[in-house]
Design goal:
The chain is α+β, with helices and mostly antiparallel strands. 19% of the residues lie in helices and 33% in strands. Helix 1 runs parallel beside helix 5 (207-216). It is elongated and about 70 Å long.
Length: 299
């Protein structure tokens, strides 16, 4: 069983918890995910199954989209609602125009300091492990890009937002920094991921839905169609002869895609058998073979 399945992650589970659930439901050992979600967050968690786990390398820098809520009035240790308050709660009256102007200041390429409760490593140790032991956590700012951060509404002490960000961006840090700039403290009260790369919330299925599909024997009908994967790469359908060579790691000529640096190679409409890289002219080499008979990285 090889494919990509989009899970609508529920609140309270880690991304690793979800992967373990998928493994048990499918009876499949080889399962991974494309982009960690915090336990308190919900939404799009693409899981890769079987030989398709090897495609994860192409999603390392995938952009993400979110919807969420920032609660103003106090900050927390984790920068979200799961943490302990680090400032005295206070009543605030939010001005929608002021909050929107504040949010606009985070758009673009910025330097962002990750939360102390994060997977960022300090001398090889995840920061959250140090933070849990109440040890000092000092993380260096990193460059991220926030393509959109739009406040969609303000009610009471909360502001709802929509965001489109680069890989490595922490929305929790944005919420905390907004509170600092406003002088009242703030934290992320809720977060739902609506997209990762080409995968959208409309494609997502709950774990309960997956369990039902497994009982009915219809799991593979829930997979993302392979031709929708990596849309920036052109697709080519291999002939029987070329497919046989590609499965053995042999280079082939693909004249119809002579200008593409990298292509997806299919056998038939649905079987993605390889990612091939152009060597010269129309000659392509299968740098990654996705096949039941040959799952090795090839050079």
């Amino acid at each position: 069983m090889n494919g990509v399945l989009i899970i609508d992650k529920p609140r309270g589970l880690t991304s690793h918890d979800v992967v373990n659930r998928v493994r048990r439901i499918l009876g499949q050992r080889s399962v991974g995910h494309l982009g960690t979600l915090d336990p308190s967050a919900t939404g799009v968690l693409p899981t890769v199954i079987g030989s398709f786990t090897r495609l994860a390398q192409f999603y390392t820098h995938a952009e993400k989209k979110y919807e969420g809520v920032v609660r103003f009035g106090f900050s927390t240790t984790t920068f979200d609602a799961d943490g302990e308050p680090t400032s005295q709660p206070q009543h605030v009256i939010l001005n929608c125009d002021e909050i929107r102007a504040l949010a606009a200041g985070f758009q673009g390429v910025i330097q962002q300091t990750p939360p102390p409760f994060s997977a960022k490593k300090i001398a090889g140790v995840p920061a959250y492990r140090l933070a849990r032991k109440r040890k000092e956590v000092t993380l260096k700012p990193v460059q991220v890009e926030i393509k959109e951060f739009t406040v969609t509404g303000v009610a009471g002490e909360q502001a709802t937002f929509r965001a489109h960000v680069s890989s490595g961006t922490y929305i929790r840090s944005v919420a905390d920094e907004m509170g600092r700039k406003l002088g009242c403290g703030a934290h992320l009260a809720g977060l739902r991921r609506t997209a990762v790369a080409e995968f959208a919330i409309e494609d997502a299925r709950t774990l309960e839905h997956l369990e039902t599909a497994a009982r009915q024997g219809t799991v593979e009908e829930r997979f993302v169609h392979p031709r929708r994967l990596l849309p920036h790469m052109p697709s080519v359908t291999a002939t029987d002869a070329d497919a046989a060579l590609i499965r053995c790691g042999r280079s082939v000529n693909l004249p119809e895609l002579s200008r593409a640096p990298r292509v997806k190679v299919f056998y038939g409409q649905r079987e993605l058998i390889a990612i091939a890289t152009r060597i010269a002219g129309t000659l392509f080499h299968p740098s990654l073979v996705l096949s039941a008979d040959n799952n090795k990285f090839l050079s």
